[in-house]
Amino acid sequence: MKAKVAVIDDDVEMLSLVALVLGKLGYEVKTYPSPGRFLDSLAKARPDLCILDMQLPGIHGRDVIRVLRENPATKTMPIVAITGAERGSPEVIKALELGADEYLPKPLDMELFAVRVSGLLRRAPAALAPSEVLRYGDLSVVLEEHRVEAGGKAVALTHLEIMLLAYFLRHPLRVITRGMLLEKVWGTQPDMSTRTVDKHVESLRKKLPTFGRRVETVIRVGYLFRP
């Protein structure tokens, strides 16, 4: 079955180009010129991944991310935020804090774009290893169900946050470089920007403070999970 990708952008030429690239990769692509049309069709379309321009007419991209993350049906759906804002800008940081899994700058590097989208879809909930449960103290990660609990309560994580958490739990007492995380969790080249990694680690620390206190920052290198 083809993965379904929704693309929301008010730039008609961008929509056509992205649809062409993703179509050649074998994905089923639906394009939307406005966030309203996308949200109206969400229940029926049921996309596996969303590519979202942050600067949209009517509803800002960050509000779309908030709606998606608050909806049980889409709370774990991978979201790629695209924007003309500079890397490290408040807009980019806010998108990642709200739950975007990836950020890509405009104009898009289509080769990089294709790699990132493919990597995210490979790590989407349906692709997670079945029946595997990871535990640390009162923290449990049920990969097949895309479910995380801490202290008996469910914790809402994006699918990339779950994959990042799982990688730490599988590799305790090991220094893990940012490049290694980009390669193993994000599925990208290890020499790419590490800002996204740091923001996702920061998010994990906020959502799972007990676990987060055990993730040490190794200056200029990466991280170490010390159980």
Based on the model shown, name its key terms.
single chain; 227 residues; alpha/beta; Rossmann fold; Arc Repressor Mutant, subunit A; 2 domains; four-stranded antiparallel sheet; 12 strands
Helical element count? Answer: 9
What is the molecular shape? globular
Report the structural category: alpha/beta
**CATH homologous superfamily annotation of the largest domain:** Response regulator
What is the annotated CATH architecture of the largest domain?
3-Layer(aba) Sandwich
Concise summary:
This protein has 227 residues and is an alpha/beta fold. The protein has nine helices and twelve strands.
Explained architecture:
With 227 residues, this protein is of the alpha/beta class. The protein has 2 domains: 4-125, Response regulator (Rossmann fold); 128-225, Winged helix-like DNA-binding domain superfamily/Winged helix DNA-binding domain (Arc Repressor Mutant, subunit A), CATH 1.10.10.10. Helices cover 41% and strands 22% of the residues. It contains 9 helices and 12 strands. The chain has helices at 12-24, 35-45, 61-70, 90-98, 110-122, 159-170, 178-186, 195-207, 209-212, and strands at 4-8, 28-32, 49-53, 79-83, 102-105, 133-136, 139-142, 147-150, 153-154, 175-177, 215-218, 222-225. The chain has a 5-stranded parallel sheet, sandwiched between helices. It has a 4-stranded antiparallel sheet with strand order 6-7-8-9, with helices on one face. The chain has a 3-stranded antiparallel sheet with strand order 10-12-11. A hairpin with a 2-residue loop joins strand 6 and strand 7 (139-142). Helix 6 (159-170) packs across helix 7 (178-186) and helix 6 (159-170) crosses helix 8. The longest helix has 13 residues, at 12-24. The N and C termini lie far apart (40 Å). Residues 126-130 have low confidence and may be disordered.
